[in-house]
Amino acid sequence: MGVLVREVRTWGAEKLLQQIAAESDLSHSTLKHIKSVLSGVFTHAKRCGAINGVNPIRDVSIPKGRESEETYAYSLEEIYRMLDVLPDPAATVIASAAFTGLRKGEVRGMRWENLHDDEMQVTHSVWNRHISDPKTRASKAPIPVIAPLLRFLERHRATKGNPQTGWIFAGANGNPLHLDNLVRREIRPLLEKAKVEWHGWHAFRRGLATNLQWLGVPIKVAQRLLRQADFGTAANYYYVKVVDEEARQAMQRLEALCNERAMRAFEASNATVVN
């Protein structure tokens, strides 16, 4: 039986979070997020006049939960090995995630009309069937498109009849491609045969950050490339209109590092397309 929002007390919310922790194998970090979401619900309820007084979630303790798993970042060599064995559209999806640092929903939200020469404007994020703006204002900043990625994108465009608008990665029904289905049906089986481990989509974003750090790119520049909201006060108030020169130069360094090996991966996947 549900409980009315106005009847929720801190002790009840405490018991609820403890019960969730006891019945689910969740990390401390996940339980912290659950508390944050619940707190947001009651904050909204206060604004709407549904409750008065103190937010009942504020003083709820967070159960210990299990230790969070260590995060993973793909190396460039792992990315190249993926591109060696995957056909399109999987290869181009992987290249897009690896060489841009886009989140999974933002990869699904890529559109042809937002690709201009060596730059991509990020305007959409797709979660399940829900299409929204990117995560934050900073997330709407444009991103550089390095030559290795552009080769994959242009080949993919040619196979689709050279569209100028619409979703770059679309399913048979015309909607954004479901990337988890692509992983299950095609990416994982082929990577397992090639003995390449799959660590999820976010590992591409971490991988780009790691590779940029290895190249000596300052953290603030890497944050701009990853479009993180905390890279500077200005990003919290204005949309970024152009790729700044430091960010472009950073990606040019990555491009120089990737070009030869990425070209070999492109040719390998091109042979897969032809065959």
Can you walk through the features of this model?
The chain has 275 residues and is mainly alpha-helical. The chain folds into two domains: 69 residues, no CATH class; 199 residues, Intergrase catalytic core (hpI Integrase, Chain A, Orthogonal Bundle). Helices cover 50% and strands 4% of the residues. It has ten helices and five strands; from the N terminus they run αααααβββββααααα. A three-stranded antiparallel sheet has the order 1-2-5. A two-stranded antiparallel sheet has the order 3-4. About 4% of the residues have low confidence.
Task: Offer a concise description of the structure.
With 275 residues, this protein is mostly helical. It is 50% helix and 4% strand.
